[in-house]
């Protein structure tokens, strides 16, 4: 079973457990609210039943969000979870508005009963337990949707506290306390809904994660040997997972394979130290050349100086012509090009076994003399391979 499959299984199990309790508590509170004529308790029961709808949203979104990336969704499906969280917030606002409306348009006179108080206390205990259970699971798999649903459960517990206060007020002769409690319930739910929508809309428009976390990630990369000055870090969130782009500096003399190794090392180290990071794209710069976003933007429409030097195919074509008299014992395909300090160094590989003479020093000087005819670069070198 893959990690995503395990995460999906956890999310589904937690959501089903919460849905079962939401249904049972909702029915119980509506019945008890009707018997005691408590508008606040009925409203709280309706709120619990409305949780079944949001639980269904959460179940579907959690299942779809952790599907593997495909052709149409190369970054995965995590945004389904973010979008569902926004929908969840909108549903909560509708519920809060309905509760407040009913509070001001219902003339029933509530009565405080022992079974009404008992139902409220039971709700507080159960919903608080569900909150901790769901929140812990959400933190375990890094799901903001599950964490949002956990706070949704806690909103039930908080609203039930308000209902309890209303019933106590009614018991002491303050009939208006029930309506006031309903309004408090509506305000609590509305506040949580607005925060939920705001946070996830920010994620949908690719708002950068917490700057402190970005600095911690940069410090993690900077702690590695031969990796210097991580910069131009760009990050976005998807359902609490972070997708990261960053530039690093490596020694200018590093080979392509070494640069790739160092970029893999940076990705591994960051993801191990920061589990919320889902993906890291590393751009390798040499320590003598900084390629930043501002540098690239300054040269839109024109080639920056480093790119005005010839590419490999052009260099090999020029070498084939300039070194045509040495072609029999040169392995031009193994030529190494080093773009360092805004110039180009060409390193030629020659085969000693194919050399026309045993005097390799003389042949080297002859090759280097011809290399001086290249219209670009400097400090070209010849290396002999002994088979």
From TrEMBL:
An example GO BP is: iron ion transport
Where is it predominantly found?
A: membrane
Question: Where in the cell is the protein located?
Answer: Membrane
Q: Which UniProt keywords apply?
A: Ion transport, Iron, Iron transport, Membrane, Transmembrane, Transmembrane helix, Transport, Zinc, Zinc transport
Question: What GO cellular-component annotations does this UniProt entry give?
Answer: membrane
Q: Which residues cross the membrane?
A: 14-35, 41-61, 82-101, 113-134, 155-174
| Protein's name according to its UniProt entry | Cation transporter
Molecular functions (GO terms): monoatomic cation transmembrane transporter activity
**Where on the tree of life does the source sit, at the highest rank?**
Bacteria
| Segments forming domain Cation efflux protein cytoplasmic | 209-285
Per the similarity annotation, which family is this? Belongs to the cation diffusion facilitator (CDF) transporter (TC 2.A.4) family. FieF subfamily.
Q: Where is the Cation efflux protein transmembrane domain?
A: 17-205
What species is this protein from? Marinomonas piezotolerans
